[in-house]
C-alpha cells in the first residue's frame, strides 16, 4: 500500500511538471529549445552554430550535428514531444540508478527505492531546469550510468561513455575513472569513441568545431556570463570573488588539478569496493567543479552523491543525504538566511556540496561493519498494552541526542516553509477586516473588548511602549530557542518531545492562518488603534507601504506568540521541580498576552486560539507517540528495580543487599547521596565503596537462613580465620527493554536522578 502511494506521488509530480511546462506562454516555454529550433533558431537557419547574440548554440559541435535531423519534428510539435521524451529519460535514469545501488538490498528497500529515487529526481533543481529550458543534460548522465551497470562489456561501456563525452566534454573524466578502476579496455574505447564523434563533427562543420574547441576553449566562453550565480563551477566562484585575468586562470588550473586527482582516487577506491553509483557520483562532482561552466541543468551528478553512506552511528546516517537533497531541491534562501556571510554560502551551496563529495566526505567502505548495521542508540521500551493509543506504537523512542547539523538544517528549512506558507495564505483585505469586526463583536458580547483602551494606554506611556516593542520582537524567538538548546544538550529525550510538539502546534497555526485570515487591531481602519512597533500605516494603500511586502499581515489567528510562550511554560514545568523557574515560566505567557494586546498585534481571542493550537500539539504528539521516552525509561527502571527486590526477598536476602552481600546503592547510582553505601549505614566490615566481605558458612546447617541478625554477630570472630577477598563490584544491569550502544548518546540508566528521576 505504501509503495503504491509512493508511485502515485511520482505520477502526480510528473504530471504536474509536464503541465507546468506546457502551460507556459510560448515565449517562456523551453527557451533553449526555441533558440535552437525556433523560427530564427541556429539549427533551422543552417548558419554558424556559435554566432553572436543570445541565439548562439552552447552545446558541442557533435551535439549540433545530432540534433539537426530533429528540426522538422520540432517544427511540428515543438514542446509536447520534447517534454514527454525528457520525462521518459528521467524515468529511465531513476530505474538505472536503482540498479546501481550497492547490494544486497532488503525487500523493503527494493520495493521503495525506485519511486523514492524518481520523486527526488523530479523535484530536483537540475531536472526542473532541464524541463523548463528544453536542455539535453540528462542524456549524458544516463549514458554514463548505463556504461557502469554490472555485466556491461568493456566495448559497450566505452561506446556509451565516449558518446556522452562527445555531448558533454567533462564526461571524459570517466575514462580516467575506468582506467584507474582496472577497466582499461573500456577507457581506451571511451577515448576512441570520443575522438571519432568529434572528428565526424569536425568534418561536417569545421568552422564551428574550430570556434568551439579552440576559440572558446571547449565552450568556456559560450552562453551567459560565467560569473553568474547559476554557474556552480570553481571558475565561476573565483570570478564572483573578484579574481580576473592570469591570476584567476592560474588558481583555477591548480585547484582543478588537485580536485581531479583527489576525486579520481576516491572514486577508484569506491569502485574497487563495489560502490559504482557512489564512484560515478564522486567523479561527476569532480567534473562539475573543474568544468568552466556548470549550469543548473548540468549539476545532476551532485544529487547522485546522496547514495553514499556516511556516519557509523544511526543518528548520523541521514545527515549527508538530507543535506544533498535539500541543496539540490530548494532555493538558497531556504537553506540559510539572506545575510552577508550566509548569503555567500547559500549562493554557492551546490558547488560546496560537489567539492565535499569529490574531496572530503568520508564515505564508508562495505567492509566496515557500520556500513550495513550502523551503531544504534539507546531507546525507551515500547509502550505496552493493546489499546489504540499511541497510534505509532512500534515507532522508536530514542533517548540519545540527535545529530546537531541535521537538526539545524531541518529547523531552518521548517521555518522557511512556515514563512512561505504564511506569506501565501489568503490575505484579502475585505475578508480579513470582516473577520476582525467579527472578533470584536464576539469580545464585545463577552465583555472582554479591552484591546483599544489598553493599546492607547501603552501608546501614551513611553517606557511601557518601548519595553513592549522590545519584548514583542525579541522574546518570541529567544526563549523557545534557548529552551530547545538546553534540552538538546542536557535532556535529549525531552528535546525530541518538545521539538515535535512545537512543530505540530506551528503546523496547526498555519492551518488557522489559511482558514481564517484576520486583520490585527493595528490594521483595522477607523477604530483608533496605534501600531506601537511600526508606526502609522497608510490603510488607503493596498500594500500598506513596505510592511506587507515582508510577511502576510493578516495571519493573526491564532497568536503563535502566545502559543509559543505557553509551550515554554509547559516545558519549564516539566524540566525542573524548582519553584522559581516554574513561577517565571508560568508568568511568561501572561506577559506575552499583555504585550501582544498592548502593541495592537492581536485580540484576546487570538491568544485563546494560541492556547488551543499548543494544547492540540501536545495532545496530538501524545496520541501519535505516547509518553515521553524519558518517562518510559524511568518507568522501566523502576519496574526492573522492584522486580529485583522481589526476587531477592523470595531468596531470603535483604532486598537492600546485592548478590554476595554487597549493598548495590553506592555501585549503581540508586542512592540519593554518595554516602548512602553500606559503610554509611554502619554495616561492619564494609569498605569505603560500600562493599562487604563474604561471610563464613553458618556453624549448623539446620540454622535458619532467614535470621539476618546472626551473620553480623559472627562476622568479627570468623573474619580473621576465613577472610576472603571482597567480591568485585558488579555493573548494574540496564532496565528491561532499554537498548544501549557505545556511541548512541546518553544511556538510559536505572536510577539517573538528573534525567528521569526529576519527572
Short account of what is shown:
With 759 residues, the protein is mainly α. The protein is built from 34 helices and no strands.
Explain how this protein is built:
- With 759 residues, the chain is mainly alpha-helical.
- Helices cover 59% and strands 0% of the residues.
- The chain is built from 34 helices and no strands.
- α1 packs parallel to α7 (107-123), α23 runs parallel beside α27 (492-515) and α26 (462-490) packs across α29 (579-598).
- The radius of gyration is 34 Å and the shape is globular.
The secondary-structure class comes to mainly alpha
Mean pLDDT over the full residue set: 80
Contiguous low-pLDDT stretches (5 residues minimum) are 542-549, 655-759
Radius of gyration using CA atoms only: 34 Å
How far apart the termini lie comes to 40 Å
Q: Beta fraction of the residues?
A: under 5%
Helical content (DSSP H or I, runs of 4+): 55-70%
Q: Tell me, what's the shape?
A: globular
**Separate helix tally:** 34
Biggest beta-sheet profile = none
Give the tally of β-strands.
Answer: 0
Amino acid at each position: 500500500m505504501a509503495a503504491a502511494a509512493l508511485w502515485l506521488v511520482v505520477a502526480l509530480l510528473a504530471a504536474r511538471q509536464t503541465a507546468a511546462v506546457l502551460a507556459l506562454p510560448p515565449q517562456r516555454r523551453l527557451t533553449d529549445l526555441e533558440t535552437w529550433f525556433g523560427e530564427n533558431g541556429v539549427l533551422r537557419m543552417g548558419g554558424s552554430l556559435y554566432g553572436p547574440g543570445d541565439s548562439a548554440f552552447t552545446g558541442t559541435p557533435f551535439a549540433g550535428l545530432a540534433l539537426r535531423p530533429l528540426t522538422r519534428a520540432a517544427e511540428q510539435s515543438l514542446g509536447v514531444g520534447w517534454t514527454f521524451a525528457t520525462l521518459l529519460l528521467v524515468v529511465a535514469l531513476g530505474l538505472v540508478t536503482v540498479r546501481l545501488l550497492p547490494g544486497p538490498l532488503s525487500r523493503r528497500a527494493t520495493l521503495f527505492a525506485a519511486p523514492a529515487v524518481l520523486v527526488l529526481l523530479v523535484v530536483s533543481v537540475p531536472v526542473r531546469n532541464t524541463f523548463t529550458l528544453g536542455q539535453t543534460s540528462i542524456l549524458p548522465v544516463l549514458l554514463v550510468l548505463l556504461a557502469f551497470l554490472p555485466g556491461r562489456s568493456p566495448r559497450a561501456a566505452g561506446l556509451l561513455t565516449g558518446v556522452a563525452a562527445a555531448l558533454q566534454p567533462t564526461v571524459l573524466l570517466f575514462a580516467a575513472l575506468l582506467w584507474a578502476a582496472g577497466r582499461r579496455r573500456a577507457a581506451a574505447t571511451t577515448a576512441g569513441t570520443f575522438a571519432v564523434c568529434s572528428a565526424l563533427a569536425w568534418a561536417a562543420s569545421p568552422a564551428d568545431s574550430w570556434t568551439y574547441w579552440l576559440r572558446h576553449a571547449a565552450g568556456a566562453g559560450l552562453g551567459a556570463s560565467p560569473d553568474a550565480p547559476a554557474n556552480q563551477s570553481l571558475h565561476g566562484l573565483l570570478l564572483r570573488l573578484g579574481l580576473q585575468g592570469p591570476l584567476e586562470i592560474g588558481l583555477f588550473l591548480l585547484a582543478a588539478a588537485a580536485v581531479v586527482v583527489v576525486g579520481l582516487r576516491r572514486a577508484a577506491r569506491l569502485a574497487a569496493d563495489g560502490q559504482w553509483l557512489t564512484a560515478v557520483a564522486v567523479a561527476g562532482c569532480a567534473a562539475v567543479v573543474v568544468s568552466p561552466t556548470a549550469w543548473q541543468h548540468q549539476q545532476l551528478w551532485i544529487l547522485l552523491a546522496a547514495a553514499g553512506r556516511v556516519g557509523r552511528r544511526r543518528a548520523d546516517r541521514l545527515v549527508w543525504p538530507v543535506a544533498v537533497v535539500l541543496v539540490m531541491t530548494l532555493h538558497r534562501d531556504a537553506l540559510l538566511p539572506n545575510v552577508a556571510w550566509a548569503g555567500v554560502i547559500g549562493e554557492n551551496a551546490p558547488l560546496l556540496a560537489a567539492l565535499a563529495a569529490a574531496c572530503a566526505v568520508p564515505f564508508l567502505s562495505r567492509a566496515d561493519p557500520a556500513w550495513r548495521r550502523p551503531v544504534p542508540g539507546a531507546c525507551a521500551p515500547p509502550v505496552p498494552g493493546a489499546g489504540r493509543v499511541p497510534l505509532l506504537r512500534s515507532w522508536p523512542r530514542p533517548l540519545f541526542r540527535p545529530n546537531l547539523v541535521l537538526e539545524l538544517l531541518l529547523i531552518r528549512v521548517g521555518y522557511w516553509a512556515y514563512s512561505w506558507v504564511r506569506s501565501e495564505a489568503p490575505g484579502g483585505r475585505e475578508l480579513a477586516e470582516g473577520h476582525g469586526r467579527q472578533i470584536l463583536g464576539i469580545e464585545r458580547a463577552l465583555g472582554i473588548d479591552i484591546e483599544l483602551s489598553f493599546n492607547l494606554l501603552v501608546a501614551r506611556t513611553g517606557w511601557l511602549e518601548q519595553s513592549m516593542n522590545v519584548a514583542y520582537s525579541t522574546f518570541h524567538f529567544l526563549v523557545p530557542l534557548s529552551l530547545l538548546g538546553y534540552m538538546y544538550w542536557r535532556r535529549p529525550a525531552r528535546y525530541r518531545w518538545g521539538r515535535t510538539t512545537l512543530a505540530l502546534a506551528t503546523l496547526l497555526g498555519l492551518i488557522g492562518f489559511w482558514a481564517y485570515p484576520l486583520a490585527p487591531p493595528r490594521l483595522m481602519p477607523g477604530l483608533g488603534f496605534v501600531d506601537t512597533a511600526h508606526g502609522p500605516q497608510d490603510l488607503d494603500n493596498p500594500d500598506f507601504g513596505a510592511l506587507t511586502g515582508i510577511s502576510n499581515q493578516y495571519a493573526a489567528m491564532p497568536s503563535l506568540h502566545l502559543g509559543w510562550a505557553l509551550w515554554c511554560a509547559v516545558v519549564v514545568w516539566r524540566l525542573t521541580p524548582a519553584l522559581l523557574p516554574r513561577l517565571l515560566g508560568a508568568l511568561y505567557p501572561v506577559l506575552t498576552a499583555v504585550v501582544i494586546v498592548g502593541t495592537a498585534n492581536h485580540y484576546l481571542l487570538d491568544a485563546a486560539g494560541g492556547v488551543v493550537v499548543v494544547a492540540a500539539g501536545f495532545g496530538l504528539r501524545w496520541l501519535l507517540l505516547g509518553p515521553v521516552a524519558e518517562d518510559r525509561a524511568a518507568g522501566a527502571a523502576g519496574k526492573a528495580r522492584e522486580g529485583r527486590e522481589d526476587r531477592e526477598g523470595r531468596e531470603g536476602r535483604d532486598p537492600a543487599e546485592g548478590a554476595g552481600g554487597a549493598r548495590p546503592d553506592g555501585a549503581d547510582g540508586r542512592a540519593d547521596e554518595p554516602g548512602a553505601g553500606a559503610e554509611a549505614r554502619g554495616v561492619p566490615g564494609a569498605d569505603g565503596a560500600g562493599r562487604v566481605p563474604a561471610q563464613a558458612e553458618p556453624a549448623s546447617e539446620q540454622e535458619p537462613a532467614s535470621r539476618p541478625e546472626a551473620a553480623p554477630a559472627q562476622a568479627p570472630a570468623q573474619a580473621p580465620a576465613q577472610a576472603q577477598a571482597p567480591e568485585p563490584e558488579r555493573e548494574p544491569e540496564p532496565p528491561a527493554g532499554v537498548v544501549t550502544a557505545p556511541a548512541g548518546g546518553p544511556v538510559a540508566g536505572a536510577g539517573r536522578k538528573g534525567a528521569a528521576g526529576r519527572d
